[in-house]
Amino acid sequence: MTVTLDQPLTLPCGATLKNRLAKSAMSETLGTPGNRVTPRLPRLYRTWARGGTGLLITGNVMVDQRAIGEPCNVVVEDRRDLPRLRDWARAGKETGAAIWVQINHPGKQAPAALNRRSVSPSALPFEDPGLKRFFHTPEALSEEQIRDIVRRFGETAAIMKEAGFDGVQIHGAHGYLVSQFLSPRHNRREDAYGGSAENRRRFVLEVYDEMRARVGDDFPVSIKLNSADFQKGGFDEDESSAVVEALAARGIDLIEISGGTYEAPRMAGAGVRESTRRREAYFLEYAERVRQRVDVPLMVTGGFRSRDGMARALAEGATDLIGLARPLAVDPAWSARLLAGEDVTSPVAPIRTGIRAVDNAAMMEVSWYTLQLARIARGKAPLENAGGLSSLLKIAGTLGWRRLRMGRLRA
């Protein structure tokens, strides 16, 4: 039977998603300077829920106040924000959508402007000079610290279930801590968490096991995982496939496939072959190979722009869910149009400032779309034609002010 966009999907844990369209995580930075939940988050997710998307995955929720990836990340270490979290969960569940929380730790990808220190599997700074100056050289985690972070992932997952969210996602991609443990480029440890590929995936398996133990067998637990990090000496597709198999054997409910890091931003389309662009999804070929090895539901994110491209990927069996991010930032109701059968193509295109160094940086695109999310969260329409350079200057000023306020709060 041919799978279509409007068909529901039942996950291994028994939960059912109402259709095959999923909002992938995007950087929101809509918390307070002290990393608390704000009313803007429920407003944003209510808009997406009413727009027809079946699964909404939040942006980064961090597990440790001492490890922030971006200004105004939400941090959930305890239950102090439980009423606000419940509001957020209720908003995302409107019209029968499911809302999952992406749970993360940045590791050494924690900007020096926001953090007194950073940690990583090994005490290795970024090699890229453009990135290196914005981040501390990390401290290598002790085994006791690793156990504490594993516990934190489980605690945050349990709180999110209590708050009424429908599932959780481990962020295991894009160069954050889980990704750092998996990569031989960043993980040079010689203990049980480093060396062999089996040892390097120990951390993510312990995180999964802890989260599953805290939320139970009938609550969705998923992961966003790199197909590869596209760096010399880094995490490759063979190792990624082995991680997929290990997680599938443990009973994970969904694997979202992405790729790249902020050093090699394939998730934003950088360096993607023209043959891949014609199929739209950046990581579809990898998903097809993984499909031969596991039965776990797959979600492919990155590059989908047309209804035909999505329908073809589902019909061919390469993916079970279509991951959408930037298209839903410029049209929050785009899913409803797709489900209604409209032959629509997203207007999403690369953002350009005319400054080569800026245009080649992944954070440029992130900043432009962050501004669109902020507008939706204020009840306004996205500015589809906003200029790249003006958006960059605006976001730089906004984030600069937020960093100043966060610094004062941490003083």
From TrEMBL:
Sorted alphabetically, the keyword list is: Flavoprotein, Oxidoreductase
Top-level taxon of origin:
Bacteria
Q: Where is the NADH:flavin oxidoreductase/NADH oxidase N-terminal domain?
A: 7-338
Extract the InterPro entries matched here: Aldolase_TIM (IPR013785), NADH_flavin_oxidoreductase (IPR051799), OxRdtase_FMN_N (IPR001155)
Query: A single GO molecular function, which one?
Result: FMN binding
What is this protein called in UniProt? Answer: NADH:flavin oxidoreductase/NADH oxidase family protein
Please give the organism.
Alloalcanivorax marinus
